[in-house]
Amino acid sequence: MGTTTPPRTLAEALRARDDESLAGLLRARPDLLSPVPGDITQLATRAGTRASVVRALERLDRFALQTAEALAVAPDPAPYDTLLGLMTGDGRDDGEHRGDAGAAIVKALPGAVAALREQALVWGEDDRLRLVRTARELLAPSPQHPSPTGLGPTVAEATAGMSPGRLQEILAAAGLPATHDPVSAVGALAGLFTDRARMGELLDTAPVEALAVLDRLVWGPPYGEVTPNPTAPVTWLRDRGLLLPVSTRTVVLPREAALHLRAGRAHRTPEPEPPVVAAVAQRDPQAVDGAAAGQAFLAVSTVEELLKGWNGGGPAVLRAGGLSVRELKRTAVALDVSEPVAAFWVELAYAAGLLASDGEADERYAPTPAYDDWAEGPAEDRWAVLAAAWLAATRTAGLVGGQDAKGRALSALGPELDRSAAPEVRLRVLTLLGDLPAGTAPDPETVLARLRWERPLRGATAQDSADLRSRLALWTLNESELLGITGRGALAAPARALLAEGPDAAAARLAPLLPEPLDHILLQADLTAVAPGPLVRPLAEALAVLADIESKGGATVYRFTPGSVRRALDAGQSAADLHAFLAAHARTPVPQPLSYLIDDVARRHGHLRIGAASSYVRCDDEAVLNEILADKRAAGLRLRRLAPTVLAAQVDPASLLDGLREMGYAPAAESADGSVLITRAGARRTPPRTAPAPVPEGPPVPDATLLGAAVRAIRAGDTAATVVHKETGPATPAGTLPRTTSAETLATVQAAAMTGSALWIGYVNADGAASQRVIAPVRVEGGFVTAYDHTADEVRTYPLHRITGVAELADDQTV
After folding, report:
1. pLDDT tens for each residue of 595-606
2. Considering 289, 315, 382, 721, which has the largest number of Cβ atoms within 10 A of its Cβ?
3. Is there a contact between 68 and 131 (Cβ–Cβ < 8 Å)?
């Protein structure tokens, strides 16, 4: 600890640490920095508060937690050898824990104790280890909160309040000499239970049924209920103190007796070593990288397809926020995936800042301006953006479809999907995969077992958290496969670069694995086109207007239909433009059926003209209008003839267009001046939106700069709080501010400025916060003192009227 005398308090133990050790404590428990403690005593007090201790215990691994649990049932203070005995046992259980397991415990225990010391949960030298009182209260056994070790109270705790007569009866039945001192009686009974030989002799006389009762209680819970007329085995145990009464109907197995039956072990199965992540398959690393790259390209394409579908304004935002179940189903059908997978892609686009609500009165989802920049980049950069956003996001798509604490359904893009543990779990799962040899696919169950060892947690709420962490881990494995982080179950090289070096390095590793975009297609006689790989962006966008995607995969199949050709004509293309486009990009001759389809749709396209009256139909061919009027399917359009070549309708132009197209015609909309109205896919964008900020789990881990400044501030505050000063009047109680009159304060400060000596002052700032400081005055004028503040390690100016008092430092004090 760096001191010649053992520390008497946690504050003294922390005060003896070096700056690096204090920084390690603040890094492990960042909640202690909110706000920065004024001195070491405040730091120790805050480190012992219940909320902070609970948070620290929840972040221990299983063996460190088992070590803390053993200290909670050990004497206080406990020598290291006593703790080791509780972890390994005394060797009476067929030597199981004296073999490899015992050796592992002996090897791991110093590290566990060091970790507990580092987090200020344990303090003191190895011959006097002390668990902080709050942790002991949380981990010690009680009827309301049984110990995690399954041990009950000590003999002294269980017999508190027992009558002296009853104690004498127990001593007599156990064959112990009578004593009229209750303390001696309790000590004699506890001594019996801790004496291996005498306890063995006593149990040798026990009925077999009594031993069976002890077997049921020995590993916990140690409490049992008895009837008003207990059985003979229970009576035998109760008479000899092996079962002590807690209430009229409850008895408990005392700790000393249980430890004898357990061969001295606090835990049935100590776990000094983390479970090994086992492999289920060893694959070729190149095959893994290839599979992951293919999935990465598909992920980018899927997100782009999703946002293109919402390019002109996506689905409406629910009143409570989020996407309706119906819209999620539509999205799943459009992307040809299941609804949970569709929810993942939607949430991923949102987490990456590519998708948001537009904020209008009729609020809808739409791409953000950042989407346009993202869509223009190369595929590897776009994937790196998605992967980095997924890794850091607290939004959890796997929760979609479940219920919140009030039983309400959780919807995609809804407000209740943030889980602060998600980034940590994702990073830890990928790190475990990265620790395996390249190409190794892990067994998911062993990954979950490792995570449960690293963060075992406690209590009912903790069990819910543990279940969530397990689900997060499984979702991570599934989502990483969808995103191309893993390939065939193993971590791919681009993902390893993402974890080690960042998104830019990941994109550089992915780029050579992606196929080069193609500038050609293969036309077939059945009105389809095959893209044998990814297409360059202009070709893909033009083809998406001219044809419908029929199937996806390694090769994409497009189908030309009258509707798709009409869509291209509506966008302002002519038949000649379409023929030229196909001839320029097809590696095969343009099939005659496709040429006929384009010419036929183009010949009829715009033959009918529709404009706004409510709406009208105009056509130079009267026979066509006569045919429409005679068609029963046009009844819903409520048409009437205004002129030989004009029909009026009582529906809006858009409905009239759709109705006539359903009847098999190819009308075109026209503008107010009579020209054909070209319809292009409108790009609707939200106002500039930033990606949703992750919701952190507790205070963020401070960086090195903040840690260094915090340690210096705590050290300086501790110097001011513990410095010895001269008494110029009545003694100042420890921890209170010095008090002097204004005249005394001014005179003392002026004298110190002349001699260059340091002073101890009390100071109250403008917010009313009081503090103690050590200053070296430099100048006193105009009601202010300018001084070097040793507490803040800088020169400051203080109003004299805010100084409560001053005192000179003792002659042997230096700062």
Report:
1. 999 989 888 887
2. 289
3. yes
